[in-house]
Amino acid sequence: MDERLLRPQFAKLSEAEKQVIMQQLAAQYEMEFKQLITFSRWGQANTTGLFSKGGSEFVFVPGDTVTLGWEHFVDGLNEESAEDLQSDLEEFGQDNMEDFLRSLMTPVHQSQIAPMLVERQLNEIGWEPISFDDPRLLAHPEWLDEFQKNRSVSLNIVGNVRFDLKNGQHFAYLYHDTDYTQFKEDLHKQGFALPTADEWAYLCGGGCRTLFPWGDSFDYDMKLYHFTSLEEENDSRPYDMELPNFFGLSIAYDPYKNEVVEADKASFRGGDGGCFICGGAGLMLGFLGCSPHFNTDSLYEDDDINDGETLNGDYDFYRQIIRLS
């Protein structure tokens, strides 16, 4: 392993040295190197390479040895966060706040993370864009009837077809069941992989020891999915948690979006499928699934979903990575 690709050493390189390394990576992995760019957020920063391949943007993320997982508060909760979380704990019949949180988090451990090229945005799973004259769509007039009745909104006929309305234009997507193992194999054949749970936690939190990348308490001033008024949804301000983090990644910003990670069986991070929000939780617990330490699989230990191989295209998403060696 080239030690220059590890975070402590990479941070010390000059921009000229980084530029040369990024150009070499672009040539090796058949990518277009676009530029060096600095991302800074939540007390962490990284000057890195921005690449494109197959219509997607990637960034170089240096490797590191980091402590991952969560066992107690570092900063402690502010009054608003504590009241928010305590209210939900009472609803769930829980007495001890930290014990409850620990039951949902990965245990504290050290992990060696390889340097990676990482896709910046999430991708959908199982949805194929089709035209409105596609024979597979025309064979189901009942779907088109539902579409005609709901032309003013987006429509998802679960497990079959989806009609999106974007900027006044309609788009159609056909749904296909996706097998987790086959999905991984297909990615590997294309030269990509999914991040492991540890790699994902690093990409999300960068080794932070607090509950969230910005601290233990929740930031109630953010514009957030599922908790904004109609007026806020219609303004031009972006959703704060969806903005690029210190690695340049849009990651862990919507609890309804589970990110698929590499494991022996279907495994997820970055959300809880909306479980807590659907249960009436407030912001603190509702967005707990977006913590870098949250173990989404802990919600399904006694549930068939954790043993299943079929991914859910409405809730499961993925990003491609290339581990560097």
Structural class: alpha+beta
How many domains, as an integer?
3
Side by side, the strands of the main sheet go 1-2-3-6-17
Q: Give the % helix.
A: 25-40%
Average pLDDT metric? 93
List the uncertain runs. none
Question: Radius of gyration, Cα only, in angstroms?
Answer: 21 Å
Can you describe this structure in just a few lines?
The protein contains 11 helices and 17 strands.
Secondary-structure blueprint of this entry?
Layout: H1 7-10, H2 15-28, E1 32-41, E2 44-53, E3 56-61, E4 64-68, H3 79-91, H4 97-104, E5 109-113, E6 116-119, E7 123-124, E8 127-130, H5 135-138, H6 141-149, E9 155-157, E10 161-166, E11 169-175, E12 178-179, H7 180-189, H8 197-205, H9 230-234, E13 258-261, E14 267-269, H10 275-278, H11 283-286, E15 310-311, E16 316-318, E17 321-323
Keywords:
single chain, 325 residues, alpha+beta, 3 domains, four-stranded mixed beta sheet, 24% strand, globular
